[in-house]
Amino acid sequence: MPHSRMSLLTTISCMAVFFAQLGMMMYLPAIPSIAQSLNATQSLTSLSLPVYLVGMAVPMLLWGKWGATWGIKPVLIASLLMFSLSSALLAVCAQIETFLCLRFVQGLGASGMSVMARSLVAQHFKGDQLTKVLSWLSIAFVISLGVGQYAGSILMSSFDWPATFWCLAIGAALLAGLVHHGLSECRQTSNTPACWGHYLTIVRHAPFLRCALMGGLGYAIIIGFNTAGPSIFQTTYEWSASDYGVLGWAMSLAYLLGSLTVNRHVLIRGQPQLSAIATGIMVVACIVMIVGVMTTPTCAALLWVPYCLIVFGQAISYPISLSQASDHSPVSGPYSMALCGLIHQMIAAFVGVTVSLLNVQNPLYLAAICLLLATMVRGLNPIKPGRGSE
């Protein structure tokens, strides 16, 4: 594949993932302000994050089938336009019920963006090379963590919360234009006929399912932390919205370092060794977090520093799990990435809703949830040191 085409595919995929994640992260520092503006409780407003995740999860199998039927380009454009329109409507929303409904629709669009972005690279790369390219998507994800929360806090302070959604609307519309003009020569359809039965075939394949669950549970740690995080840091530790926004940069740096570690070392050290190291780091960091908040409950650093180590481990583990899931899939085309996305979003949405409904305000409870999820990730790790990837 020509280098210029590979760069174009990677850039478009990264931007699609970037905006899908921005929709999740950018408004978080403004949650207390949104709750006040819409005359809603902060707990109810916090449901907008898991609602977004449910919106991402519900249509993922449909996006995969549509991508196989009509091609990645038109489906990606449609999802970008849906995301853009719903973001614009969120900016002018005045009721919490409407806000939550529009967050669901925004999640629907983000779902298509995420599935098509990963399907685009999965079509053209395999094995360790796919892991390397997926690490670039992880870098886009991590940049959205830092840029999203920090930019969201700046926009909130300068222009109030609707500005965050206007930025998302304009950015997604511009990306749709780039896709329209830039993907004209990309292969758009899979050689595998479109069929719902392919999903059942894939999910019954144990090696695929283990890898998909591993990625989803690790992703759920980030979602669970960010669901409870704004309230815990701004209430328990008395941080401002700007302070919490700055924390996004620390999380971004951790994820960036993990993604760069995969990008640099996966072709040399291989997936088994990196995956074992990453999942081990996640478990140890969770233990350190629990001990820290138990011994010094007033020190916020003992919560967020171990969390950054968890994020570092997840940044290494996640692209490896996606690559393994794609390679283990018994069916080609967008199906495996769509099913991975569904599994990941359903797990994340379940954890997000659970954390929100339990109204987790105690840092120790949040640390315990992180440890439970990290232990499950470690237990599901399908590739052990000394074994090559299948």
Question: What does this protein look like?
Answer:
GO terms for molecular function: transmembrane transporter activity. Keywords: Membrane, Transmembrane, Transmembrane helix, Transport. It is a multi-pass membrane protein. Residues 9-390 form the Major facilitator superfamily (MFS) profile domain. It is found in: Membrane. Helix content is 82%, strand content 0%. It has helices at residues 3-25, 31-37, 42-46, 48-57, 60-70, 72-91, 96-124, 127-159, 162-182, 197-203, 206-236, 241-269, 271-295, 301-328, 335-357, 363-380. The chain starts with a helix and ends in a 10-residue tail after the last helix. It is globular, with a radius of gyration of 20 Å. The chain has a single domain (3-182, 195-380), classed as MFS general substrate transporter like domains (Growth Hormone, Chain: A). Helix 12 (241-269) packs across helix 14. It contains 16 helices and no strands. It is mainly alpha-helical and 390 residues long.
The structure class reads: mainly alpha
What is the 3D shape? globular
Portion in strands? under 5%
Q: Can you tell me the number of structural domains?
A: 1
- Reading off the top of the CATH hierarchy, the class is best stated as Mainly Alpha
The total of beta strands comes to 0
- The helicity comes to over 70%
- Reading the helices and strands in chain order gives HHHHHHHHHHHHHHHH
Number of helices: 16
The CATH homologous superfamily is called MFS general substrate transporter like domains
Rg over CA atoms, rounded to whole Å, is: 20 Å
Here the CATH topology equals Growth Hormone, Chain: A
Query: What separation lies between the terminal Cα atoms?
Result: 24 Å
Low-confidence parts, pLDDT < 50 over ≥5 residues? 385-390
Q: Specify the biggest β-sheet.
A: none
Mean pLDDT: 83
The CATH architecture is Up-down Bundle
